[in-house]
Amino acid sequence: MKKLIALGITLFVAFQSISVSAQDLNEIVKNHIAAIGGADNWSKLKSMTSEMTMKAQGAEIKVVVNLIPKKAMRADIEVMGMNGYQIMTDKEGWSFMPFAGQTKAEPSTPDDVKAAQDNLDIVDQLITYKDYGKKIDYLGKDDVEGTECHKIALTNKEGEVTTFFIDPSTYYVIKEVSKKKANGKEFEMTKTYGNYKKLEEGIVFPMLSGGDQGEMEITKVTINKPIDEAMFQPKSLSELKK
Amino acid sequence: MRKILFMAFFLCVSATAIAQNSVSSSLFSVMEARSMGPGTMSGRVSAITGVNNDNGKTMYLGTAGGGVWKSTNAGTSYKSVFDKYCQSIGAIAIDQKNPTTLYVGTGESNMRNSVSIGNGMYKSTDGGDNWKKIGLDSTEHISKIIVHPSNSDIIYVSVPGPLWSDSEHRGLYKSEDGGTTWKKILYKDAKTGCADLLMDPNNANILFASMWQFRRQPFSFNSGGEGSGLFKSIDGGATWKEISNGLPTKPFGRIAMTLAPSNPKKMIAIVENKTTGLYISEDGGDTWKSQSATMNVCARPFYFSTIVVDPKDEKRVYRPAFEFAYSDDGGYSFSNASSDGGWVHSDMHALWINPINTNLMYLGTDGGVYMSIDRGVTWMFQQSLPVGQFYHVAFDNKDPYNVYGGLQDNGSWMAPSSSPGGVGNANWSRIFGGDGFWTVPDVDGKTAYAEYQGGNMVRVELATLKGESIQPKKTLKEEKLRWNWNTSIVTGKKNPKNLYVGAQYVYKSTDQGRNWARISPDLTTNDKKKQEQEDSGGLSADNTSAENHCTVFTIAESPLDENLVWAGTDDGNLQYTLDGGKKWTNVSMNVPKCGIASQAWVSSIQPSQFDKNTLYVTFENHMYGDHKTYLGKSTDLGKTWIRLDSKEFNSFAHKIAEDPENKNLLFLGTEMGLFCTLDGGANWFRMKNNIPEYAMVRDIQIHPKTHDLIIATHGRGIYILDDIRPIRNMNQETIGKDVYIFPTPDILLNNGRFGWGGPEVSGGWGAGNAPIKPSIQYYLKDRVTSGKATIDILDDKGNLIQSMPATIRKGINKVDWNLRGTPPRVAAGSTKMDGAGFTAPMVLPGNYTIKLKIKDKEYLSTVRCIHDNDNKDLSVTDRKLVYDKAMALQVMYTRLANTIDTIASLQAKLKADTVAFKKSKSSKVIYDDLEKVRAELMATKQTSMFADEEKIREKISELYSTFCSMEAKPNSTQLQAIESLEAELKTQEVNLDKVRKKYPGSTVY
Question: Considering only residues 104 to 133 of chain A, which have any Cβ-Cβ distance to chain B shorter than 8 Å?
Answer without folding.
Answer: none
